[in-house]
């Protein structure tokens, strides 16, 4: 593979991994479900890791390994996690579990035959949350967010009956308890039944419902949703409270927290596998959704010695269960049109219950997928909820096919606007109507107001659909002119004077946004949240970015090479950006938006000026005495460096405090520059 093709493939895969990770940790931003199965995500991740092993120059060109969550919403106060909330690596087979156990024993240097205890816990399909107690009282609750910064949901969490407001003594002065907020199957079905009666959009699954319920601005809504909480880990604590995970779970129970059923201490791989089989056998009888089993090294001293890679601990893994399957019949095949014009066929199914959720639709992805399985109307098919979320067809039972049956043909004209359907370079079917297609317009506007873009509170999907249908919205800029329709909006069913006034305030508050959000809002293909941030950090101002992109569209070689020099930008992204800026209708839309919105310039950190560590990769290990390790890492990033949780050939400097262990040994063997904490601060400058 040519160097440029290799880089482009690497950029494409890592961008997809980042996107899938973001959607997983913010399911309410994607109400129809996840875009990628666990198996597909893991296979893609393995491909990327293999590319990095074969081509070391790719390592560090993106921060995909550090993406463990999503950007916190501007609608909530932010919470900084002093101990990051990381993700877990996955296992899908007994062989994967055996490899995990072997690696842990090898890293710990345990002699052959010595027993290493593990503990298993059911992996509840919910939302991670961190509860901070001071002097035994709940003072703050935060979502995972991006792993370092989350959202303050204290008022909402206070309505969850499973969470004690006050702990019984004894307890540390400071104690952070991590766990999972979830919604039971029964509560989920009751909620959707109520929403259906009210004509509201249904939640796709209990996890999405839990996410939407926890992230309410009105705590009374959260209180009405019957959420639960399972405790499973510690964050920051002022003193040790247990020597093992089993002892920690016992302490949680003593304080009044629920812990997941099915916990077991295992001493061999076979015992772990037997426990996974036992839980899988009883999975459907559980009152809540689970998608696997978490396996952890039991003793905390061993956990500390094993440490972390950038995105996950080495001492734990998540064994993912296979998706649940059922048979049903394809009633019809309809076509949806997305915001970029891509036509996605969807199967309408005879309703069937899979994993406690009634499934009546399944994505067919694209025409090539339909042809591969030869899916036809009237076919009997096997469906599964991939990752227990997205329904998809995995098999067609030809022996049950009706005698009269025709192969499916994708329409030549858009089913929404009748514009011609064309094929792009990736062979995707595209509606050529652009925003003249009401479906594309609606989906683009939903993207524009979404959490990771302009984040306009109160501007949900159903309202966008209503406003487009009423002829009030035809461009993103029209959102900022809605005040001219305020009187008319007050007469809409379910709106009212107060909600309209609140919406107008929320819209006006978003007239000044970060440049990265503004760039993302334009809906350029291949330019999502991460790429928008990279563009903003590189070009600093809208005027500079636009000027350079117009030069790229005009074929300017210098501007094109500068664009390609940005991390993860390859020929595909370059082509899409050029196409956007060569389209006069897109530039008219951009001009109209600039009349209403003022994107903020990206300020250069004062610490980064003349910094000796700009562009270098830094790893901190051991105890930091001048500031906590997460703060030291944030300070290094402010000075222009990259930080990582593991040592590799790409590491430039290891900062080693007291208690440094395996990372110090590895850095020494690789010839990485090693500094004490004092040497580090002497090099970069005094702490502030």
The coarse silhouette is: globular
In spatial order, strands of the major sheet run 2-11-10-3-9
From the N-terminal CA to the C-terminal CA, the straight-line distance is 48 Å
Number of domains: 5
Count every helix, treating DSSP H or I runs of 4 or more residues as helices: 24
Poorly predicted segments:
29-34
Question: What would the average pLDDT be, to the nearest integer?
Answer: 85
The name of the CATH architecture of the largest domain is: 2-Layer Sandwich
Instruction: Determine Rg (CA atoms, Å).
Output: 26 Å
CATH superfamily of the largest domain: DNA ligase/mRNA capping enzyme
What CATH calls the topology of the largest domain is D-amino Acid Aminotransferase, Chain A, domain 1
Amount of beta strand: 15-25%
The proportion of residues forming helix, as a percent range, comes to 25-40%
- Characterize the biggest β-sheet: 5 strands, mixed
Structural class: alpha+beta
The CATH C-level name of the largest domain is: Alpha Beta
How many DSSP E strands?
Answer: 22
GO cellular component, one term: cytosol
Keywords: DNA damage, DNA repair, DNA replication, Ligase, Magnesium, Manganese, Metal-binding, NAD, Zinc
Cofactor: Mg(2+); Mn(2+)
EC number: 6.5.1.2
């Amino acid at each position: 593979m040519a160097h440029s093709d290799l880089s482009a493939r690497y950029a494409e895969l890592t961008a997809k991994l980042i996107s899938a990770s973001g959607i997983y940790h913010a399911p309410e931003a994607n109400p129809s479900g996840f875009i990628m199965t666990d198996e597909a995500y893991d296979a893609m991740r393995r491909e990327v890791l293999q590319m990095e092993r074969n081509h070391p120059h790719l390592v560090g060109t993106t921060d995909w390994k550090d993406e463990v969550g999503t950007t916190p919403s501007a609608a909530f106060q932010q919470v900084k996690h002093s101990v990051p909330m990381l993700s877990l690596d996955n296992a899908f087979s007994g062989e994967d579990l055996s490899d995990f156990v072997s690696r842990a024993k090898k890293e710990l240097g345990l002699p052959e035959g010595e027993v290493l205890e593990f503990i298993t816990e059911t992996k509840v399909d919910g939302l991670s949350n961190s509860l901070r107690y001071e002097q035994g009282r709940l003072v703050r609750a935060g979502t995972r967010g991006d792993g370092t910064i989350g959202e303050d949901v204290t008022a909402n969490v206070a309505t969850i009956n499973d969470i004690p407001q006050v702990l019984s003594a004894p307890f540390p002065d400071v104690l952070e308890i991590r766990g999972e907020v979830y919604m039971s199957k029964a509560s989920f079905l009751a909620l959707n039944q109520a929403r259906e009666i009210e004509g509201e959009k249904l939640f796709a699954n209990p996890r999405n419902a839990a996410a939407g319920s926890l992230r309410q601005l009105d705590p009374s809504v959260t209180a009405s949703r019957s959420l639960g909480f399972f405790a499973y880990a510690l964050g920051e604590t002022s003193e040790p409270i247990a020597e093992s995970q089993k002892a920690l779970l016992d302490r949680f129970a003593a304080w009044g927290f629920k812990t997941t059923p099915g916990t077991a201490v295992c001493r061999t791989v076979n015992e772990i596998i037997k426990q996974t089989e036992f839980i899988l056998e009883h999975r459907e009888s559980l009152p809540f959704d689970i998608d696997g089993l978490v396996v952890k090294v039991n003793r905390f001293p061993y956990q500390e010695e094993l440490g972390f890679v950038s995105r996950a601990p080495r001492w734990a893994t998540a064994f993912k269960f296979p998706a649940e399957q059922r048979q049903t019949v394809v009633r019809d095949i309809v076509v949806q049109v997305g915001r970029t014009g891509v036509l996605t066929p969807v199967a309408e199914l005879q309703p069937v219950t899979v994993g406690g959720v009634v499934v009546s639709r399944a994505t067919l992805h694209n025409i090539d997928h339909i042809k591969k399985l030869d899916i036809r109307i009237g076919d009997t098919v096997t469906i599964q909820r991939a990752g227990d979320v997205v329904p998809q067809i995995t098999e067609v039972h030809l022996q049950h096919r009706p005698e009269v049956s025709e192969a499916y043909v994708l329409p030549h004209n858009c089913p929404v606007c009748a514009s011609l359907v064309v094929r792009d370079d990736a062979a995707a079917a595209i509606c050529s109507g652009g925003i003249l297609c009401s479906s594309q317009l609606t989906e683009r506007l939903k993207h524009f107001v979404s959490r990771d873009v302009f984040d306009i509170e109160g501007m949900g999907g159903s309202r966008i659909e209503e406003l487009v249908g009423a002829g009030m919205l035809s461009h993103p800029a029209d959102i900022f002119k809605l005040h001219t329709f305020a009187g008319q909006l007050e007469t809409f069913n379910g709106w009212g004077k107060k909600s309209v006034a609140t919406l107008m305030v929320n819209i006006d508050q978003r007239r000044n946004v970060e440049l990265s959000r503004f760039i993302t809002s334009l809906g350029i293909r291949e330019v999502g949240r991460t790429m928008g941030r990279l563009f903003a950090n590189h070009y600093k101002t809208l005027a500079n970015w636009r000027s350079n992109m117009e030069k790229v569209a005009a074929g300017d070689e210098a501007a094109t090479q500068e664009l390609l020099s940005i991390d993860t930008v390859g020929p595909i992204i370059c082509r899409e950006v050029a196409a956007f800026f060569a389209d006069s209708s897109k530039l008219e839309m951009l001009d109209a938006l600039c009349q209403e919105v003022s994107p903020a310039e990206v300020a250069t950190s004062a610490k980064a000026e003349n910094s000796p560590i700009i562009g270098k990769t830094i790893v901190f290990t051991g105890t930091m005495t001048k500031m906590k390790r997460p703060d030291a890492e944030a300070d290094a990033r402010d000075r222009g460096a990259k930080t990582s949780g593991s040592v590799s050939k790409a590491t430039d400097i290891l900062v080693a405090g007291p208690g440094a262990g395996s990372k110090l040994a590895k850095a020494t063997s690789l010839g990485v520059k090693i500094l004490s904490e004092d040497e580090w601060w002497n090099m970069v400058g005094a702490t502030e």
